[in-house]
Amino acid sequence: MIDQNTPEERMLRLFTRLRNLDLDHWPDLAEGISPAQMTLLEQIVLNPGCGVQDIAEQLDLSAPTVSVGMNKLEENGLVKREPHPTDKRAVQFYTTAQGQSMHDRFSAARLQKFKRLLSGLNPQDKETLLSLLSQAVAYAETGIDKKPTNRQIFADNRQKDNWIYKS
Protein backbone atom coordinates (compact mmCIF):
# COMPACT_ATOMS: atom_id res chain seq x y z
CA MET A 1 0.00 0.00 0.00
CA ILE A 2 1.29 3.44 -0.99
CA ASP A 3 1.50 6.09 1.69
CA GLN A 4 -0.64 8.94 0.31
CA ASN A 5 0.91 11.50 2.65
CA THR A 6 4.53 11.39 1.52
CA PRO A 7 5.82 14.63 -0.01
CA GLU A 8 6.21 12.84 -3.34
CA GLU A 9 2.60 11.61 -3.39
CA ARG A 10 1.29 15.02 -2.35
CA MET A 11 3.36 16.65 -5.10
CA LEU A 12 2.04 14.15 -7.64
CA ARG A 13 -1.55 14.96 -6.68
CA LEU A 14 -0.83 18.70 -6.88
CA PHE A 15 0.64 18.33 -10.36
CA THR A 16 -2.39 16.33 -11.42
CA ARG A 17 -4.63 19.14 -10.16
CA LEU A 18 -2.45 21.70 -11.99
CA ARG A 19 -2.70 19.69 -15.20
CA ASN A 20 -6.48 19.65 -14.81
CA LEU A 21 -6.49 23.46 -14.71
CA ASP A 22 -5.52 23.44 -18.40
CA LEU A 23 -2.98 26.21 -17.98
CA ASP A 24 -1.60 25.48 -21.46
CA HIS A 25 -4.93 25.28 -23.30
CA TRP A 26 -6.32 28.28 -25.17
CA PRO A 27 -8.62 27.07 -27.95
CA ASP A 28 -10.30 30.45 -28.37
CA LEU A 29 -7.00 32.27 -28.85
CA ALA A 30 -5.21 29.83 -31.11
CA GLU A 31 -7.84 28.20 -33.27
CA GLY A 32 -6.14 25.98 -35.81
CA ILE A 33 -2.78 26.24 -34.04
CA SER A 34 -1.41 23.36 -32.01
CA PRO A 35 0.41 23.94 -28.71
CA ALA A 36 3.62 22.84 -30.45
CA GLN A 37 3.12 25.44 -33.18
CA MET A 38 2.42 28.09 -30.54
CA THR A 39 5.78 27.18 -28.98
CA LEU A 40 7.45 27.68 -32.38
CA LEU A 41 5.71 31.02 -32.80
CA GLU A 42 6.96 32.08 -29.39
CA GLN A 43 10.51 31.19 -30.43
CA ILE A 44 10.26 33.51 -33.41
CA VAL A 45 8.85 36.32 -31.29
CA LEU A 46 11.72 35.91 -28.82
CA ASN A 47 14.37 35.45 -31.52
CA PRO A 48 13.36 37.31 -34.69
CA GLY A 49 15.37 36.22 -37.69
CA CYS A 50 16.15 32.78 -36.30
CA GLY A 51 16.34 29.76 -38.55
CA VAL A 52 15.04 26.22 -38.35
CA GLN A 53 18.28 24.90 -36.86
CA ASP A 54 18.33 27.62 -34.18
CA ILE A 55 14.80 26.72 -33.06
CA ALA A 56 15.53 23.00 -33.21
CA GLU A 57 18.54 23.42 -30.94
CA GLN A 58 16.69 25.62 -28.45
CA LEU A 59 13.78 23.22 -28.14
CA ASP A 60 15.72 19.95 -28.45
CA LEU A 61 13.79 18.97 -31.57
CA SER A 62 14.89 17.74 -34.96
CA ALA A 63 15.17 20.25 -37.77
CA PRO A 64 12.62 18.35 -39.92
CA THR A 65 10.08 18.48 -37.07
CA VAL A 66 10.58 22.23 -36.71
CA SER A 67 10.40 22.68 -40.48
CA VAL A 68 6.97 21.01 -40.66
CA GLY A 69 5.66 23.26 -37.88
CA MET A 70 7.11 26.36 -39.50
CA ASN A 71 5.40 25.48 -42.78
CA LYS A 72 2.06 25.27 -40.94
CA LEU A 73 2.64 28.65 -39.28
CA GLU A 74 3.52 30.16 -42.64
CA GLU A 75 0.42 28.62 -44.27
CA ASN A 76 -1.67 30.22 -41.51
CA GLY A 77 -0.11 33.62 -42.16
CA LEU A 78 1.56 33.81 -38.74
CA VAL A 79 5.20 33.84 -39.85
CA LYS A 80 7.12 34.83 -42.95
CA ARG A 81 10.44 33.56 -44.18
CA GLU A 82 13.12 35.72 -45.68
CA PRO A 83 16.44 34.74 -47.24
CA HIS A 84 19.45 34.83 -44.97
CA PRO A 85 21.60 37.84 -45.95
CA THR A 86 24.87 35.89 -46.19
CA ASP A 87 23.92 32.20 -46.47
CA LYS A 88 21.93 31.62 -49.65
CA ARG A 89 20.81 28.16 -48.42
CA ALA A 90 19.32 29.42 -45.16
CA VAL A 91 16.16 31.32 -44.33
CA GLN A 92 15.19 33.50 -41.40
CA PHE A 93 11.75 33.60 -39.80
CA TYR A 94 9.81 36.63 -38.60
CA THR A 95 6.30 36.99 -37.24
CA THR A 96 3.64 38.69 -39.30
CA ALA A 97 1.32 41.25 -37.72
CA GLN A 98 -1.25 38.46 -37.37
CA GLY A 99 1.32 36.18 -35.73
CA GLN A 100 2.45 38.88 -33.32
CA SER A 101 -1.15 39.65 -32.41
CA MET A 102 -1.91 35.99 -31.73
CA HIS A 103 1.23 35.66 -29.62
CA ASP A 104 0.35 38.80 -27.64
CA ARG A 105 -3.17 37.52 -26.91
CA PHE A 106 -1.82 34.08 -26.01
CA SER A 107 0.82 35.56 -23.68
CA ALA A 108 -1.70 37.83 -21.96
CA ALA A 109 -4.10 34.92 -21.41
CA ARG A 110 -1.29 32.71 -20.10
CA LEU A 111 -0.15 35.46 -17.74
CA GLN A 112 -3.71 35.90 -16.45
CA LYS A 113 -3.99 32.17 -15.72
CA PHE A 114 -0.75 32.20 -13.73
CA LYS A 115 -1.73 35.40 -11.92
CA ARG A 116 -4.97 33.69 -10.92
CA LEU A 117 -3.03 30.64 -9.78
CA LEU A 118 -0.77 32.77 -7.58
CA SER A 119 -3.42 35.28 -6.45
CA GLY A 120 -4.21 33.39 -3.24
CA LEU A 121 -0.65 33.87 -1.99
CA ASN A 122 0.91 36.91 -0.41
CA PRO A 123 4.08 38.30 -2.08
CA GLN A 124 6.43 36.54 0.33
CA ASP A 125 4.70 33.18 -0.17
CA LYS A 126 4.85 33.64 -3.95
CA GLU A 127 8.60 34.22 -3.78
CA THR A 128 9.05 31.24 -1.47
CA LEU A 129 7.03 28.97 -3.78
CA LEU A 130 8.91 30.08 -6.88
CA SER A 131 12.28 29.84 -5.17
CA LEU A 132 11.61 26.33 -3.86
CA LEU A 133 10.24 25.10 -7.20
CA SER A 134 13.24 26.58 -9.00
CA GLN A 135 15.58 24.88 -6.57
CA ALA A 136 13.82 21.50 -6.94
CA VAL A 137 13.80 21.72 -10.74
CA ALA A 138 17.45 22.75 -10.88
CA TYR A 139 18.41 19.82 -8.68
CA ALA A 140 16.34 17.39 -10.75
CA GLU A 141 17.91 18.70 -13.98
CA THR A 142 21.45 18.13 -12.82
CA GLY A 143 22.81 14.74 -12.05
CA ILE A 144 26.17 13.05 -11.98
CA ASP A 145 25.84 11.69 -15.52
CA LYS A 146 23.39 14.22 -16.87
CA LYS A 147 24.10 17.50 -18.62
CA PRO A 148 21.32 20.08 -19.11
CA THR A 149 19.50 19.89 -22.42
CA ASN A 150 19.07 22.89 -24.70
CA ARG A 151 15.45 23.05 -23.54
CA GLN A 152 16.58 23.33 -19.90
CA ILE A 153 19.13 26.02 -20.75
CA PHE A 154 16.46 27.95 -22.67
CA ALA A 155 14.04 27.59 -19.75
CA ASP A 156 16.71 28.87 -17.36
CA ASN A 157 17.33 31.89 -19.61
CA ARG A 158 13.61 32.66 -19.70
CA GLN A 159 13.46 32.34 -15.91
CA LYS A 160 16.39 34.75 -15.57
CA ASP A 161 14.42 37.20 -17.69
CA ASN A 162 11.50 36.62 -15.29
CA TRP A 163 9.24 36.78 -18.36
CA ILE A 164 6.22 34.88 -17.08
CA TYR A 165 6.04 36.53 -13.66
CA LYS A 166 6.26 40.18 -14.67
CA SER A 167 3.30 42.19 -13.41
Give me some keywords for this one.
59% helix, elongated, 167 residues, two-stranded antiparallel ribbon, single chain, 7 helices, Arc Repressor Mutant, subunit A
Summarize the structure.
Helix content is about 60%, strand content about 5%.
What report would you give on this structure?
The protein has 7 helices and 2 strands. By secondary structure, it is mainly α. It has 2 domains: 23-119, Winged helix-like DNA-binding domain superfamily/Winged helix DNA-binding domain (Arc Repressor Mutant, subunit A), CATH 1.10.10; 120-159. Strands 1-2 form a two-stranded antiparallel sheet. Helix 2 (35-46) packs across helix 4. The protein is elongated and about 60 Å long. Residues 160-167 have low confidence and may be disordered.
Please state the second-level CATH architecture of the largest domain: Orthogonal Bundle
Low-confidence stretches: 160-167
**How would you characterize the largest beta sheet?**
2 strands, antiparallel
How are the strands of the biggest sheet laid out side by side? 1-2
**Fraction of residues in β-strands:** 5-15%
- Give the fraction of residues assigned to helices: 55-70%
CATH fold-level label of the largest domain: Arc Repressor Mutant, subunit A
Radius of gyration: 19 Å
The number of E-state strands comes to 2
Tally of individual helices: 7
Mean pLDDT: 82
Total number of domains: 2
Helix and strand element order: HHHHEEHHH
Report the CATH C-level class of the largest domain: Mainly Alpha
Morphology call: elongated
Distance between the termini: 44 Å
User: What structural category do the secondary elements indicate?
Assistant: mainly alpha
The CATH superfamily of the largest domain bears the name: Winged helix-like DNA-binding domain superfamily/Winged helix DNA-binding domain
